[in-house]
Specification:
By secondary structure, this protein is mainly α. It is built from 19 helices and 8 strands. It has helices spanning 21-29, 39-58, 64-78, 97-114, 127-131, 137-173, 193-212, 214-218, 236-250, 260-265, 268-294, 324-348, 358-382, 391-400, 409-412, 414-427, 431-438, 443-449, 452-455; strands at residues 2-6, 9-13, 178-183, 186-192, 220-221, 255-256, 305-306, 388-389. α2 runs antiparallel to α3 (64-78), α2 crosses α9 (236-250) and α7 runs antiparallel to α11 (268-294). The longest helix is centred in the middle third of the chain and has 37 residues, at 137-173. The radius of gyration is 30 Å and the shape is elongated. The relative contact order is 0.10.
Amino acid sequence: MRVETDMVGSATIDEGVYYGLQTLRASENFHITGRRLTAEFIDSLAEIKKAAALVNGEDGRLAPEKMRAIVQACDEILSGKFRDQFITDAIQGGAGTSANMNVNEVVANRAIEILGGEKGDYTLVHPNDHVNMSQSTNDVIPTAGKMTVLKLMRGLEKQLTRLVDALEEKAREFDPILKMGRTQMQDAVPIRLGQEFGAYRSMVLRDLSRMQHVPDEIKYVNMGGTAIGTSINADDHYVKNIVPALTRVSGLKLEKAANLIDATQNVDCFVAVSAVLRTCAVNLSKMANDLRILSSGPRTGFHEINLPPRQNGSSIMPGKVNPVIPEVVSQVAFGVVGNDVTISMAAEAGQLELNAFEPVIFYKLFESITTLTGAVQTLVDNCITGITANEAHCEELVEHSVGIITALCPYIGYSMAADIAKAAIRKNISVRQELVERNVLSQEQIDRYMDPYSMT
């Protein structure tokens, strides 16, 4: 065991761990979600520490041997080592100080080892004085959050692109298939099944376009602003060079915020990103609802399409298969919408020079991106690509629908068309049969005006 001391007091820490006293206190104080920091968030923090060490080393503020040790420790973290040493809960008080210090302490203790010392000997490398040099939690944490969003969004954009492609393929496959369109769950006018899937594709394309503008919202970081954006404890060389260095280290396209005080105070960029995710979630859930309705049955529902069977649907009803993939997509959407509310409330609750609630903003935002990514992936792999159409049933429904009478309004007028529709419903016959009985139009006119394909 080793003893560490801070302003609160002293405590013993297991000799084998790389975190220090501030991390230990955080782990004791915040038993909230049971989930630790996101791996990409840890990587982003390590990249920040590496970039800061490089810039401080160039400036001569950080001794070369300390710089090299810190950089090596960060590289080891980025390679996947020491992940069990990041023990702070994802939601924590203190505006993310616990997460920042968790990284500072792990990097410091590993750097101490590299220099031949023993963990806890902070005279060699100090978590605050050396690893956190020229930084504050208040510029490190929001910057790491933005970097993490950029990383996670890559996966979501990839899956949305796959969904667009899958929907395009189905739109082509189903283009010849006629079916009835419905408004307010009532018969409307004919549409091609391919047109419905083409509309889904257009919708997702809009979502993808919104996603691709996310970097324009969050590429501006407040590194160099330190505590409140006034750059206290950071010299001009560091303030000028930290963001370019971080860009090189991370491979992300980052830019220094034009107003570091604004970028430290305000987190509206995360609200904007969450709104994009919420909109996408709403669209995906609407499509999932449609797929469930269109595949309902198989004997007593719409049964116009078949979703690929993925698993047994009931523990009591033999032969039942449920639309489990669209169901999970909607459940993810509910979570994303709820997360958006949390993010909006947390952003609004910031006061003066800092928003203390960034931990919950990041927890919910990362969750929204990650769960949406998984939902879209399973939607493509386990649902969309395997959908088949019941073409004959679709055509039968078109033939027996009264909605097709709409096409005759320009020729016989709305009132007569409505009367014919009501009569067909009352007699339980097709509109075409009622037209023949009334002898309102010639057979040639009926065939020409009532061609369902021409209506689409």
